[in-house]
Amino acid sequence: MVPITMKSRHWIVAVLVMAGLPSGALGTTFSAGIENSRWILSDSIFACTLTHPVPGYGEAVFYHRAGESLRFFLQPVRNPMRAGEAALVIEQPSWKAGKPVDDLGYVRVEDNHDRPVELSSGTSERMLASLREGRRPTFTRRARQSDRPVRVRLNHVNYGSPHQSFRRCQSELLPVNYDQVQRTVVLFDLDKSKLSQEARERLDDVALYVKADDRITQVYVDGHTDSIGTPLRNRELSEARAEAVAGYLQDQGVPEDQLVTRFHGDRYPVAGVETPGPRHRRATVRLERENDDDEADPVVTQAQRKDLVIVD
């Protein structure tokens, strides 16, 4: 049982009112204490994950995948919150002077047990900054089975060093992820096989990713044309386009033994596009990777159930 001072009671009541909850129901708060507050970093050039175990609840996770924006989500063992709008505030520790609560508005709580709360990059950044300043983001929502409030609070204790490492990881992320380069289309002008500047930039990203991910086993390059021209010319042109792309990738460091080039003339037009035109004049790059059934998102371990649950 955590003692509640008059000052802390005032801001608790304010949060309850904001969340549409009766001020007399103080409910349950899930939060790590000073003695067991942990921030766990998982870092690579593909993704950065900063995980905060919330005792008795699950985990709070900041996640930044290469080529995407930062996001935050709550991952409970079992979601105790009712679907709807939760109040999100940034609490000032009771020993600090100044405004006790900063209101970040409402966030959506979905009716599931996986990630009931998932936030945009802007709100996630504000939460990261508040933790660095020694403040505590707190979510408040009605319980699933009653009108009593449930709060999930992040603790800033032991946050400093992992936060610095997380920021460093973010600065070292690749500019793209696997999903963004797994299938890449390069377009050509009519009767041409010369790479445009835009095509070179896209292929630069492909080459960068292939060299970074040792799970890539094969890079398929397929050349195509539209139906303008003779079959013989189209076959030659599709071969030239495939060779131009494969040669450029090889020049950028993709091993020759990973590259497979194929050329098809006008035999495989773009699905749904019946008339000849720019979309058919292309080369496609497809990456093949080991363990391609793996989830793109991190596997986040659950918080230890034996940890402390704070009940107000």
From TrEMBL:
<feature type="domain" description="OmpA-like">
    <location>
        <begin position="175"/>
        <end position="291"/>
    </location>
</feature>
<keyword id="KW-0472">Membrane</keyword>
<dbReference type="Pfam" id="PF18393">
    <property type="entry name" value="MotY_N"/>
</dbReference>
<dbReference type="Pfam" id="PF00691">
    <property type="entry name" value="OmpA"/>
</dbReference>
<dbReference type="InterPro" id="IPR006664">
    <property type="entry name" value="OMP_bac"/>
</dbReference>
<dbReference type="InterPro" id="IPR006665">
    <property type="entry name" value="OmpA-like"/>
</dbReference>
<dbReference type="GO" id="GO:0009279">
    <property type="term" value="C:cell outer membrane"/>
</dbReference>
<protein>
    <submittedName>
        <fullName>OmpA family protein</fullName>
    </submittedName>
</protein>
<dbReference type="InterPro" id="IPR050330">
    <property type="entry name" value="Bact_OuterMem_StrucFunc"/>
</dbReference>
<dbReference type="InterPro" id="IPR036737">
    <property type="entry name" value="OmpA-like_sf"/>
</dbReference>
<dbReference type="InterPro" id="IPR041544">
    <property type="entry name" value="MotY_N"/>
</dbReference>
